[in-house]
Write a structure and sequence with these properties.
single chain, 13 strands, globular, 5-stranded mixed sheet, 10 helices, alpha/beta
């Protein structure tokens, strides 16, 4: 068995896999779109295929890896590898033994963690957070996820800590994909933003964003579609992005008021696309709501890019847990 380990970032639009050394050195990677139909077994099969492709690129077989870590959305039981209620994935309303299923298929131990938390830990060890002892990660993508590191250690609470996307930023506000009202994700999550854009278009607001989506061969408003629409000066696109920034700033400020972290790291698909462009505006929105604003946290964009979630997931494989 080699010292190489696999890492898998399971997202609402893509499955990113890597094969890396313990220090994060990349040996192989592969990406596949996340299935849009079927159920958990179909998603698991797509994960298996993507990992096999990454292993092939690294010149190893999956069973030769020291183990594989998976960052998954939903309610993740790290001890059992069971994932429940991953609403951003097709047909995933109940519980599914993702870790056991992948371990049996790939012939090596598989550990499962929360997708955003493992990505934040990746940034803490190898990326934007490595100079800090505490940080809040905010992953702005299909939804809005969060992860926390305090005094150099991940803070998981009882298993559900870091769900910043479901902090209420407007009581009785917009309906969130989770079913509640007023969550940050209802204003800033890509899926909620797309739903709002469709409603606006149906009500007669002029926009080119869906034409751009079709021209680029996409079936949803991916982060690249939002970027192209913004570049082309689409007014609705800019309005919805700035609306998202306002509510992100409000929610982040509340979390900072509670935790007083040294740094806030912005990641995720939309975060990677727009973090640098909107960081000053996001910081300004956050500062409006800070209780102590003379020593704000550092605001940084995640450094590990599209591979960050998968590299972070690989950190679940350590000598003491394989």
């Amino acid at each position: 068995m080699s010292d190489l380990r696999g890492g898998i970032d399971l997202g609402g639009t893509k499955i990113q896999t890597v094969v890396v050394e313990a220090d994060g050195t990349l040996h192989g990677e592969a990406r596949q779109p996340t299935p849009t139909s079927g159920g958990p077994a179909d998603v698991a099969h797509a994960i298996e295929e993507a990992l096999r492709e990454a292993a092939s690129a690294a010149g190893v077989k999956p069973e030769e890896l020291a183990g594989i870590g998976v960052g998954s959305p939903g309610d993740v039981d790290g001890a059992s590898g069971v994932v429940s209620g991953a609403r951003n994935l097709p047909g995933w309303e109940g519980s599914f033994p993702l870790g056991e299923t992948l371990s049996r298929a790939l012939g090596t131990p598989v550990k499962v963690g929360n997708d955003v938390q493992v990505a934040v830990e990746g940034e803490f060890e190898h990326g934007a957070g490595r100079q800090h002892s505490s940080l809040l990660g905010v992953w702005w993508g299909t939804g809005v996820g969060g992860g926390i590191v305090l005094d150099g250690k991940p803070w998981l609470g009882r298993g559900a800590a870091g769900e910043i996307g479901h902090m209420v930023v407007k009581r009785g506000g917009a309906r969130c994909p989770c079913g509640r009202r007023g969550c940050m994700e209802a204003y800033a999550g890509r899926a909620a933003m797309e739903a709002r854009a469709r409603r606006e278009q149906h009500e007669g607001v002029e926009t080119e964003i869906f034409a751009i989506m079709e021209k680029r061969g996409k079936d949803r408003l991916t982060s690249s579609v939002w970027e192209h629409a913004l570049r082309e000066g689409d007014a609705l696109t800019e309005s919805l992005l700035r609306r998202a920034i306002r509510y992100l700033g409000t929610g982040i400020a509340s979390a900072v008021n509670l935790l007083d972290v040294e740094a806030v790291v912005i990641g995720g698909g939309l975060g990677a696309r727009f973090g640098d462009r909107f960081m000053d505006e996001l910081a300004q929105e956050m500062h409006k709501h800070l209780f102590v604003d003379d020593n704000p946290p550092a605001m940084q964009v995640a450094e590990l890019g599209d591979l960050g979630g998968a590299i972070g997931a690989s950190l679940l494989i350590r000598p003491e847990v394989v």
